[in-house]
Design brief:
- There is one protein chain.
- The protein has six helices and eleven strands.
- Strands 1, 2, 3, 4, 5, 6, 7 and 8 form an eight-stranded mixed sheet that branches. A three-stranded antiparallel sheet has the order 9-10-11, covered by helices on one side.
Length: 243
């Protein structure tokens, strides 16, 4: 996307970004169970540019090993999404936020059909962060300028590997272009016929790392749309192929 987002390089870019995002963010105050997870989406300054900070998970983890993610993890019983995301970021990279702006309005549903909440905020200047990475969870961290993310998104096609039962559970938990004014049975029938679908992807700046994809890319795309739609940024549209 060739968009004019030069304001993100201005001296007051942080306050402008916060002003654009906070009216669209919410506070999920409900106490969550261990079936939910939460991540912290950390903005930071690096070389006077606003960046997003990402982690690369270690190859030894049981789930999502070697993938790019935001700091986060499973909720402890009775925690809010904010509490989980901050605790997990402190445990994984040893960083606490200096500003917490709120949560994306609705969670992303994982392939395991778990709600994953995204808390958004600011952690300061990257050069000043005294990070302490958890060696069992985080291989390394990196940042990407927000302006680069705005211009670099592409789409990738994935094969549908969900079972009929997964689609039944998913139909009860997420919105899709198929479920407006339709009953649950029809919704399940239609979405279970999807053979492949496209999702947003962002390139990693490190050649040896995988691209930013999956839930992390979906959250990034939603956040960029919220901040830059006035500049013409278009949110990725779920485009399935149906058998």
């Amino acid at each position: 996307m060739n968009l004019n987002v030069s304001w993100i390089r201005s001296r007051n870019a942080l306050s402008l970004l916060r002003e654009r995002l906070t009216p669209k963010l919410v506070e999920h105050k409900q106490k969550l169970s261990r079936s939910s997870s939460a991540v912290f989406v950390p903005f930071c300054h690096r070389e006077d540019q606003l960046n997003l900070l990402f982690t690369k998970r270690t190859e030894t983890l049981n789930s999502h090993s070697g993938q790019i993610s935001f700091p986060g993890g499973r909720c402890e019983e009775g925690e809010t999404a904010r509490e989980t995301s901050i605790r997990e970021m402190e445990e994984e990279i040893g960083v606490s936020p200096s500003q917490v702006w709120g949560n994306l309005s609705r969670p992303v549903v994982s392939l395991k059909l778990q709600n994953v909440y995204a808390c958004v905020g600011y952690v300061g200047h990257f050069e000043d962060l005294k990070m302490k990475l958890s060696p069992n969870e985080v291989s390394h961290v990196f940042t990407v300028p927000v302006e680069d993310l705005v211009h670099s998104r592409f789409e990738k096609t994935y094969q549908n590997q969900r079972s009929r039962r997964q689609w039944e559970m998913l139909a009860d938990r997420v919105d899709s272009e198929f479920d407006d004014q339709q009953d649950r049975a029809e919704n399940i029938r239609r979405i279970s016929q999807i053979t492949e679908y496209t999702m947003p992807v962002f390139p990693s700046p490190i050649d040896t790392d995988p691209d930013i994809w999956g839930m992390t890319a979906v959250m990034t795309d939603r956040l960029l749309y919220t901040a830059f739609r006035i500049n013409g940024y278009k949110k990725h549209t779920f485009t399935p192929s149906v058998s």
